[in-house]
């Protein structure tokens, strides 16, 4: 079945061939009819709405023109043909060839805005099916497929959809919804309004909801643009009952200090209680100021005083989820609060694996305070304490080292520095060869690795030596001499070869 998308299309200017009232064969025509330069077919009319098939995009699509408002709407937009539309009030029907066979599609222009495919199986009771029409129930996926749009006065429009996880939720599990909207025109999304099908509602692009009973729920997202334009999307979500042997949990957490101050570190610790043979798989923190965290323990620094709602979402290894939220009040620092600026010195910027890097921390303090703690995070999961620290990395890569200095009034400051760990190059090797011509000798070296030759050393076998890739030597007596070439590479490795020189006078 074709995906239904209603989009506003700019009305073309009237072309030649416009008919006016009073022309022969057109009795009773009260206003001009605008003729568009497209291949049009199978028009039908109901009130001020005219529907027709149009071939302007290279295949047959269904369009609607409202003669009163002068606006044209595209009802279908895919690569398959949609033909033979007919309209009655707010119902439009046409033939759809997207399955390879001609199916009948029915669209309700207002209300639930859903398109239904006629089928021969017994009616499975999908809500909203027009009377007398046998319909296929909606297939639940993680992305909506039903969307409508109503342009605003600035002629902006939007197409809405949303996703959710988990894809097959159970009773009392947290379902995370994320809304999406594609906006056509110079407008922005102003509001996101959700209806979860069980009487609950929410607002915002990202929301969560827990269903307390099993069943199929129609979730609707309404998106409003800042010019008043509206688009919406809906989808059915099936909530399954909990397994009989499921675990349960009660989420809770604590934080320290109990009365945190601005720019002070707040440590959050999970205190969730789990019933059943399960274990906690994930912790997700939302600190109420847009920041998030993970793990059974998390830390956060607030830079503004105020009351923040901190939420903890816990998921067990059987999929069960629980959550809780607490209000944390962040107070301004006292007037006599100290401040500091931390810095890091290191003995090298680059190191090899297992080569220690030495760090030294310092803090410039403003106020009558002193440093009570130095905390190091070496960027590879390892940590340390103290004003000085040393750390060796096991693997090559870039690492960011973080130092947090804590003053005796609770104030903290931090600094970062980067360390690059590179593996040492593989040693080079070579094989040498000699070619001769009379009293001339030429050396060659086949090098394996990123190295080059730094020295060619010759031993002519008669006590004489030479250097260079090309040398000459005159022997003073007849005989057979062993000529030896030693090649030295710039990493210190060498290779050697010999040849025989036969001297006859």
From TrEMBL:
Origin: domain of life: Archaea
Family matches, as PROSITE patterns: PKD
InterPro entries in the cross-refs: 6-blade_b-propeller_TolB-like (IPR011042), Ig-like_fold (IPR013783), PKD/Chitinase_dom (IPR022409), PKD_dom (IPR000601), PKD_dom_sf (IPR035986)
Domain PKD: 158-239, 282-330, 374-424, 456-505
A Pfam family of this chain: PKD_4
Stored Gene3D superfamilies: Immunoglobulins (2.60.40.10), TolB, C-terminal domain (2.120.10.30)
Record-given protein name: PKD domain-containing protein
UniProt source species: Methanoculleus sediminis
């Amino acid at each position: 079945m074709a995906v239904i998308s209603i989009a506003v299309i700019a009305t073309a200017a009237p072309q030649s061939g416009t008919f006016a009232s009073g022309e022969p064969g057109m009795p009773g025509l009260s206003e001009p009819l605008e003729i568009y330069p497209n291949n049009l077919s199978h028009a039908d009319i109901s009130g001020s709405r005219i529907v027709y098939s149009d071939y302007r995009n290279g295949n047959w699509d269904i369009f609607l023109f409202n003669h009163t408002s002068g606006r044209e709407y595209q009802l279908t937009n895919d690569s398959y043909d949609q033909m033979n539309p007919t309209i009655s009030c707010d119902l439009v029907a046409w033939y759809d060839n997207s399955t390879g066979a001609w199916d009948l599609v029915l669209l309700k222009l207002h209300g639930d805005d859903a398109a239904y495919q006629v089928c021969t199986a017994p009616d499975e009771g999908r809500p909203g099916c027009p009377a007398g029409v046998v319909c296929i129930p909606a297939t639940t996926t993680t992305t909506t497929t039903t969307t409508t749009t109503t342009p605003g006065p600035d002629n902006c429009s939007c197409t809405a959809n949303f996703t959710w996880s988990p894809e097959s939720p159970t009773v009392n599990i947290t379902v995370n919804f994320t809304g999406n909207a594609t906006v056509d025109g110079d407008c922005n999304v102003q509001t996101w309004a959700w209806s979860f099908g069980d009487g609950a509602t929410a607002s915002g692009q990202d929301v969560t909801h827990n269903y307390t009973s099993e069943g199929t729920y129609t979730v609707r997202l309404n998106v409003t643009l800042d010019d008043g334009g509206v688009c919406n999307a809906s989808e059915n979500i099936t909530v399954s009952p909990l397994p009989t042997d499921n675990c349960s949990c009660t989420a809770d957490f604590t934080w320290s200090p109990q009365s945190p101050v601005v720019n002070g570190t707040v440590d959050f610790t999970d205190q969730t209680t789990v019933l059943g043979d399960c274990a906690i798989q994930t912790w997700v923190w939302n600190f109420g100021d847009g920041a998030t965290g993970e793990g059974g323990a998390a830390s956060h620094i607030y830079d503004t005083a105020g009351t923040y709602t901190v939420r903890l979402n816990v998921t067990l290894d059987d999929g069960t989820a629980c959550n809780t939220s607490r209000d944390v009040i962040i107070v301004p620092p006292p007037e006599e609060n100290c401040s500091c600026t931390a810095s890091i010195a290191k003995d090298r910027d680059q190191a090899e694996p297992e080569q220690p890097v030495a760090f030294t921390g310092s803090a410039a303090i403003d106020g009558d305070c002193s440093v009570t703690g130095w905390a190091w995070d070496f960027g590879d999961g390892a940590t340390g304490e103290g004003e000085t620290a040393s750390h060796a990395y096991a693997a090559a890569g870039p690492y960011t080292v973080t130092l947090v200095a804590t003053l005796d009034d609770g104030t903290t400051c931090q600094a970062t520095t980067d360390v690059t760990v590179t593996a040492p190059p593989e040693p080079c090797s070579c094989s040498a060869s000699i070619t001769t011509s009379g009293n001339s000798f030429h050396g060659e070296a086949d090098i394996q690795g990123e190295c080059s030759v730094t020295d060619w050393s010759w031993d002519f076998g008669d006590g004489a030596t030479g250097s260079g890739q090309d040398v000459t030597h005159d022997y003073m007596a007849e005989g057979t001499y062993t000529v030896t070439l030693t090649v030295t590479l710039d990493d210190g490795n060498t290779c050697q070869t010999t040849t025989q020189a036969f001297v006859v006078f």
